[in-house]
């Protein structure tokens, strides 16, 4: 794991006070009706909600790693009150896997966005061990001011940069142009895998936050 990256406990995350309330994007009958909060919920401090988009979860029927990664998403959704709708897309998901995801409260997307979702609402992207191209597409789609509206949990960008420096791989440079360019404006916090049981699911993964003055400094030509 990257040595200079810091460790973050997601429980202690705070939400930028400027962020706005996000209403459900699409929905089944009744989803847009305001939900009545229980007395316990009314006692809790209120936070604005944000979307969570999960790309590339993999086959939850076939492999333990995607199941562990999905478990983290569901735990975050349960524990962190600021997380709103959870949308999932992976082209390999079967109809059965999609139904399981829906039963767990996720919305399975029907369209392959190729990772190009624009964070017009504050959005948490969870992309466990996706290909570099997918992260790059996401960054390209949000290049500029919209980077401020997104947080990304996925492969360590610092590790991509180290690979480029070590192996001078032109393939990585080509597929990761935006990843490399955004590095100097990114605060990265690596996931510390405390047990070998979770290594396969969470190794080389980091939280990425993008600097507020991102607009002025984003220059692809510097790569
Ligand atoms: C390297 S696998 C990672 C799978 C799993 N998360 C893991 O760690 O084992 C990358 C995943 O990205 C998915 N993928 C490919 N293109 C995608 C796209 N356009 N949108 C979302 N997921 C995509 C693949 O189907 C695959 O399941």
Automatic annotation (TrEMBL):
InterPro entries according to UniProt: SRR1-like, SRR1L
Domain SRR1-like: 46-209
Source organism, top-level taxon: Eukaryota
GO cellular component: cytoplasm; nucleus
PANTHER family reported in the protein's UniProt record: SRR1-LIKE PROTEIN
Family stated for the protein in its record: Belongs to the SRR1 family.
Protein name, per record: SRR1-like domain-containing protein
Upper lineage: Eukaryota, Viridiplantae, Streptophyta, Embryophyta, Tracheophyta
């Amino acid at each position: 794991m990257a040595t200079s990256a810091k460790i973050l406990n997601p429980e202690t995350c705070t939400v930028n006070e400027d962020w706005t309330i996000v209403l459900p994007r699409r929905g089944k009958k009744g989803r847009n009706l305001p939900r009545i909060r229980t007395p316990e919920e009314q006692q809790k401090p209120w936070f604005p909600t944000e979307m969570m988009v999960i790309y590339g979860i993999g086959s939850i029927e076939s492999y333990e790693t995607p199941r562990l990664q999905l478990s983290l998403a569901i735990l975050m959704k349960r524990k962190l009150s600021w997380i709103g709708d959870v949308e999932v897309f992976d082209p390999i998901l079967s109809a059965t896997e999609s139904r399981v995801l829906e039963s767990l409260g996720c919305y399975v997307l029907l369209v392959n966005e190729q990772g190009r979702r624009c964070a017009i609402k504050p959005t948490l992207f969870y992309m466990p061990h996706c290909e570099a191209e997918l992260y790059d597409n996401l960054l390209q789609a949000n290049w500029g001011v919209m980077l401020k509206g997104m947080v990304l949990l996925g492969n360590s960008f610092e590790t991509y940069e180290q690979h480029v420096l070590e192996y001078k791989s032109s393939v990585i440079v080509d597929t990761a142009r935006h990843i490399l360019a955004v590095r100097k404006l990114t605060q990265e916090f690596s996931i510390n895998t405390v047990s070998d049981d979770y290594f396969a699911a969470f190794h080389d993964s980091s939280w990425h936050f993008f600097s507020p003055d991102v607009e002025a400094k984003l220059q692809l030509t510097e790569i």
